[in-house]
Amino acid sequence: MAATPTNPIHSLLTRLGSAGVPTGFARMALPAWWEDEIAQSKSGLQQAQMYFARAFHIDLVSLAQSSGPVRFQETQRKFKLSRNVVESDVSVSAHFATAIANLALVGVGTKQSIVPKDPVELRAAILQKHSCVSLSALLAWCAEANIPVLHIHKLPGKKMTGLVVREDGRFAIVLSKKGTPAHLLFHLAHELGHIANGHLQENGFVADEKIGGADAGDADEKEADAYAIRLLNGKEVSYGPGASSVIRSGVALYKAALARATQERIDVGHIILNYGNSQKNHPLANMALKSIPGESDGIKVVNSAFVQALDASKLSDDQVELLKTATGYNA
């Protein structure tokens, strides 16, 4: 009895697995109508190869070969990593996020505004329309600037906190860690710092595996952190309890932060997190964040703004489906 021919899609998935893309994750790149039998024809196999290359930033020529290693596209790559984390831990996730970010760029206007080099200038522009530089306010500015910002929670490898992508002189930002709007506000401000300071001069990406946890000697990270602090506060500042006060509860910290936030037009959540970081008391800060009324899911804030800014008519149905699958946002 003749052996049943192996479907070439299985070989393709095996090669992707060797490159670090798990089979289950790779299949999410295929549209909902896909059936593996389609890959039995030459044109069907080529179609699958294009779907995978698009979704994972892979060199299509290497994927079209019947054997040999799968190669990711050659672009400028900058990895900002914590101690004991190496590039190979993050590389596949960074390339996937880059591919999705490039897709997002198709769905926004082609003319982007320049991110001001001076963060105080950007802060002043945002304060003309908003009470403070909050996550929603900063996302609104990015939407007006045609800089797509999206959140991707599920990645094929180790998570990153944030990633800036440059493609043909245009930028996109991907956030990936869970958090409150205050957490993601700082992450977004940090990534804008990379853009403003010209840390990416060619097509490619800057992948921040952990913002605030990278090598203390990394000049780019210091510069991006400083940009974020000045953008959110108007100056370089670390918040403390003051000489004559001791803050012992989350409610007390929230009230103190709210008074300052109202007076100085600063996001209250940012003041709380800044305090927790400077005082090395993150549990207290997390308790204080629970007193902030309104939306507590930063992911929802980011991706609802992304979908609102996206012009789906510029994308194919398959591209829209992939974006929704990657972001997990279907509203």
Which descriptors would you attach to this protein?
single chain, 49% helix, five-stranded mixed beta sheet, 331 residues, alpha/beta, 5 strands
Q: How do the helices and strands follow one another from N- to C-terminus?
A: HHHHEHHHEEEHEHHHHHH
Contiguous helical run count: 14
The proportion of residues forming helix, as a percent range, comes to 40-55%
So what's the oligomer here?
single chain
Mean pLDDT: 93
Q: What is the topology, as strand order, of the major beta sheet?
A: 1-5-3-4-2
In terms of topology, how is this protein built?
Elements lengths: L7 H11 L4 H5 L14 H15 L3 H5 L11 E5 L6 H20 L12 H9 L7 H10 L4 E3 L10 E6 L2 E6 L5 H16 L7 E5 L10 H15 L16 H15 L3 H11 L3 H8 L8 H12 L7 H11 L4
Parallel strand pairs: 1-5, 2-4
Antiparallel strand pairs: 3-4, 3-5
Helix pairs in contact: 6-9, 7-13, 8-9, 8-11, 8-13, 10-11, 10-12, 11-12
